Amino acid sequence: MKLERDIQAQITKYLRNNGIWHVKIITANRNGIPDLICLRKGIFIAIELKRPGHKPTDLQQAELDRIKQAGGFSFCCHSLEEVKAIFEPLTKDEKDLTKNAP
After folding, report:
1. Span 4-100: which CATH code?
2. What is the largest CA-CA distance in the chain?
3. What is the pLDDT at residue 31?
4. Where are the domains of the chain?
5. Are 88 and 80 in contact (CB under 8 A)?
6. For the residues of the chain, what is the DSSP string, one character each?
7. Residues 43-85: pLDDT tens digits?
8. pLDDT tens, residue by residue, 24-44
């Protein structure tokens, strides 16, 4: 089974290679903040990284929900393939992120 840090390394490499601005959150001013914050074509995207079979904590899920309520896009990710499904439409100038959301 892949470790979360290995999944993160694959994802950050993909983001970097595709010109997607992103930052890995190590310490935040409150708990539950998603692991990766991204910006692509004016769209704010937050990603909570988890190993396959694992779910966000209640606090992490609450933050993901708050981001959506504020007009951003957020999701929990278990693989590079899930991230590609979200970002590839943006690299093709498509605007609808939600159609490929996990």
Report:
1. 3.40.1350.10
2. 35
3. 87
4. 4-100
5. no
6. ---HHHHHHHHHHHHHHTT-EEEE-SS-SSTT--SEEEEETTEEEEEEE--TT----HHHHHHHHHHHHTT-EEEEESSHHHHHHHHHHHHTT----GGG--
7. 899 999 999 999 999 999 999 999 999 999 999 999 999 999 9
8. 988 777 889 999 999 988 889
